[in-house]
Amino acid sequence: MTALRYAVSDTLVLARRSFLRIPRQPDLLVGYTVQPVMFVLLFVYVLGGAIQTPGFDYVDFLIPGIIVQSMAFGGFVTALGLSEDLKKGLIDRFRSLPMSRAAVLTGRTLADVGTNVMQLVVMLAVGLAVGFRFSTGVPEVVAGIALLLLIGYAFSWVFAFIGLVASSPEAANAYGFTIIFPLTFVSSAFVPVDSMPGWLQPIAEHNPITTMVDATRALFLGTPAGNDVWLAVLWSLGFVVVFGVHSTWRYRRAVTR
Amino acid sequence: MRAVAGDLAIETEGLRKSYGDVVALRDVNLEVEAGIVLGLLGPNGAGKTTAVRVLTTLLLPDAGSARVDGLDVVRDAARLRARIGLAGQYAAVDENLTGHENLEMFGRLYHLGGRVARDRARELLADFDLADAGNRLVRTYSGGMRRRLDLAGALVARPPVLFMDEPTTGLDLRSRLALWDAIQALVSKGTTVLLTTQYLDEADYLADRIAVIDHGQLIAEGTPDALKGQVGGDRLEIRLEDPSRCEQALTMLRPLAGGSASLDDGVLGLPPRSRRGAIADAVRRLDEAGVGIDDIAVRRPTLDDVFLRLTGHAAEEEPEELAE
Fold first, then answer.
1. Do the domain assignments include residue B311?
2. Which residue of chain B has the CA closest to A97?
3. So what's the ipTM on this one?
4. Cβ separation A17–B97 shorter than 8 A
5. How many domains, chain A?
6. pLDDT of the residue at B149
7. pLDDT of residue B315
8. A9 and B81: CB-CB below 8 Å?
9. Can you tell me the distance from the alpha carbon of B10 to that of A167, in angstroms, rounded to the nearest whole number?
10. Which of A29, B21, B49, B86 is most buried, judging by how many CB atoms fall within 10 Å of its CB?
11. Which residue numbers of B have CB closer than 8 Å to A's CBs?
């Protein structure tokens, strides 16, 4: 019982640490706010006219996809931060303290949920400003928002693992982009899967990002959901479990480089 | 707080650790009495950092055992962590927090509770001359300030045993001296300190006992004076204006010598029978014989000599780097 109480309080102490950094690193704030806004505007006004999305206004099609993408990238700062902590010897200090052995990771991923909320608010506001409209009721929209935050949390654990295995913050950055970028683009996030070359379509269809985007569209726009919502939840929980276990194992034996 | 003399704060038995083919520690047996400073001295890659990592529960040993403050570093690791402090070569503090926020965070992670953690942070900032900088972000701190904050972080829970891995590497002289003062103040309150260093003068100045480690092996252990004694006492060293007259000079000086003389790189060396008056006596004798002196001095052995004698190489030399 004490162990659990300490695990929770240690997590909160370290989540607070992550939050305190945000206003002090203005480049982080730019990443959380300006960048997603820029992406929405570029897609809607530059690419949108050239992309055919039968049955949808492009802005309605785009917003769920682009929010899933930004949730998937939301944990990037966890990879960079962990990698930096390893390099600077802070992980050694944490590991020498009588604190919970998972708190460094649970603290960071929890802080990511906070910043993801921030991103989500900004993107929905911009989306509404450029013409996006929900076509479902309040319960569906709330469920969609909860799903998006769960997706963001799942990817935070992927990034935690990347941060612990990368040899430097630069490498973590490179890994993150090479993995997450293709994953989000070869999906239904920005263009309909039907418009891709035949050989790419099965890959896009089985991509968990496609499932997550389709689930979000179902909850925001009322498109047929099929099993997408449940599958998206399962994918996310699967990511949390698999990468959570591996990251914690990796953290315990982390060696400062 | 002061421990009873004779209690062991650190003891290791047959401690071994390898990284692949590279042996970082081979059968290290070490005993450190409570309340003293042990200087663990060795060149880069000798195994110092590996030893500290094993003793602070960061690394599991391959074989052997180690106890710190009576607790086994493997079996009792979780309990031990509450009783040790670690200050490293990195200044492991968060640059985007203030000094106060860093110490408060460490205090909370030691589970001191919010109020106590904040009070302790203020106290430590004052102790380490950082009170004025306490509310500034650490990224604005100088190197010396960061190391002091790092040391303060290691002391948050008032650990009875403190490990410092090359605490002054890369610091300027003034910051080094300030840190030395801080370490001495701690020891005077009864903390046991294990300090690794490549600097012989640092070990000489701070340590009550010194253990010399090279290629993962403990090759000597003792007080600084005892170790210096191993390489012999004072030496009278004379550089002649005309090195070809060495033989003649030696004959003149023989009555002064308490042991065999040496000739090394044009410098005549011999152990004087007595330190007092040795120089005046030597100068008089050589002057009478008309042998000109370029330079003359009585030199006390330093830890450099000990080190050279024990390891066969100087301390600043860097042999093959071990994966540490």
1. no
2. B81
3. 0.87
4. yes
5. 1
6. 93
7. 54
8. no
9. 33
10. B86
11. 53, 56-59, 78-79, 81-82, 84, 86, 88-97, 101, 105-106, 108-111, 137, 153
